[in-house]
Structure to design on (453 residues):
């Protein structure tokens, strides 16, 4: 088994490019699907069995804040994933070991800090977003319980990132499937049977996250490959941590900027009332089908570029980016057609309120045709990050996505406050940022310059 996973890493640097990307992509895709199902289970069950206020509490402002906070750490720890993939591709076991042990310790410490701050600051964060009064109390309860599981959440994300960096995208999938099934079972027991409401939904989530954290930790401890985790060697290596932060901090900051712009959008949606909040919360779960697909391609290209860049295979790097871009565009078009025509059935999983469903359908048919305009941002930023280039992509996202989106919400939306004006901020910023990424990648990036030598 150990030899098999070591060989998988070699195949990434030597096999047929499009096949290796797809072999790596599909386990990530299915894993992301179960991650979405994992997150959607709480929303579906409380929406159907508790009510639209509970749905808004679980999947509205709370969901945005969780995505913002966890997204920063996942982005920050992506620096470890890049370094592990590069050192693994270069066959440097001692450096892989330093990276693995440092990021695991960092994830535990970060989880403790986030738990304490999250419990203390949750009421203020929700109030600052303009969360509707009838939803805020439930949201505070859900968030505080959720934050109690933050260490397990971060340990799983870190461990899964390490496994994917060395070419093992299958076992993170298995762990997510197991924890997702446990989450759904616990949701039914705690929310439906014991009628614990949003508290039960949050407890189900953190208990299932604990299971996935244990599974990924045991896997790292049992492997004999370069990424073996030895509890006795856990420590923060200052130099390695510095390298991780230099690569991962821009990605974490980029995630925060996306999250903050989405928080501002959520605040605008909150001003339109509970029905619109519930419709947006439901749409975000259906919309997740697209995001899980494009994110899976983004993770795939980052690992592919990282290992091939570390091995000095720049010809494969450029060919891999082209292949991944082509496949992602084709998949995005198909996803747009699927959601536009059949996404209506997804709303019935979350709510029976017809007004909420009608608002949600309008949202879905407005945004789903423009998904393809985002693809290049994900693929090119993932490729550049795999080569260790994180700062310029972060700056482009800062101006092209976040600053422009916030400016639109603050200055354009008040002129005609409705859901369509708010949603237009997405395609507007995607198109502008895509143009910026193409220009930088082709004419100024390290990969582009080396491609013309």
């Amino acid at each position: 088994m150990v030899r098999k996973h070591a060989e998988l890493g070699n195949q990434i640097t030597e096999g047929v490019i499009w096949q290796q990307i797809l072999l790596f992509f599909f386990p990530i895709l299915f894993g992301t699907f179960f991650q979405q199902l994992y997150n959607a289970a709480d929303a579906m069950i409380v929406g159907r069995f508790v009510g639209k206020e509970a749905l808004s509490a679980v999947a509205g402002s709370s969901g945005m804040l969780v995505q913002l906070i966890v997204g920063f750490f996942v982005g920050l720890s992506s620096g470890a994933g890049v370094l592990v993939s590069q050192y693994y591709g270069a066959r440097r076991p001692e450096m892989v070991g330093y990276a693995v042990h440092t990021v695991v310790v960092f994830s535990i410490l970060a989880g403790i800090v986030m738990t304490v701050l999250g419990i203390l600051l949750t009421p203020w964060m929700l109030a600052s977003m303009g969360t509707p009064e009838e939803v805020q109390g439930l949201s505070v309860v859900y968030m505080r319980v959720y934050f109690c599981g933050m260490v397990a959440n971060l340990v799983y994300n870190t461990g899964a990132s390490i496994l994917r960096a060395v070419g093992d995208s299958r076992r993170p999938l298995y762990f997510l499937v197991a924890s997702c099934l446990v989450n759904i079972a616990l949701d039914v027991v705690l929310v439906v049977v014991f009628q614990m409401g949003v508290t039960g939904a949050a407890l189900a989530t953190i208990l299932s996250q604990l299971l996935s954290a244990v599974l990924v930790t045991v896997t790292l401890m049992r492997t004999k490959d370069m990424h073996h985790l030895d509890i006795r060697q856990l420590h923060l290596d200052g130099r390695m941590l510095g390298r991780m932060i230099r690569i991962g901090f821009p990605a974490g900051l980029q995630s925060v900027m996306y999250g903050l712009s989405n928080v501002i959008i959520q605040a605008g949606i909150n001003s339109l009332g509970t029905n619109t909040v519930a419709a947006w919360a439901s749409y975000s779960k259906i919309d997740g089908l697209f995001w899980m697909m494009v994110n899976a391609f983004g993770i795939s290209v980052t690992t592919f570029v990282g290992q091939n860049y570390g091995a000095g295979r720049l010809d494969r790097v450029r060919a891999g980016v082209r292949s991944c871009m082509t496949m992602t565009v084709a998949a995005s078009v198909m996803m747009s057609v699927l959601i536009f025509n059949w996404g209506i059935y997804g709303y019935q999983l979350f709510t029976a309120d017809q007004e909420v469903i009608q608002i949600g359908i309008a949202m879905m048919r407005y945004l789903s045709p423009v998904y393809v305009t985002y693809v290049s941002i994900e693929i090119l930023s993932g490729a550049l990050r795999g080569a260790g280039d994180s700062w310029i992509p972060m700056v482009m996202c800062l101006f092209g996505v976040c600053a422009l989106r916030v400016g639109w919400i603050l200055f354009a939306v008040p002129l005609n406050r409705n859901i369509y004006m708010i949603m237009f901020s997405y395609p507007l910023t995607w198109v502008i940022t895509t143009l910026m990424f193409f220009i930088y990648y082709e004419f100024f990036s390290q990969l582009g310059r080396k491609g013309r030598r």
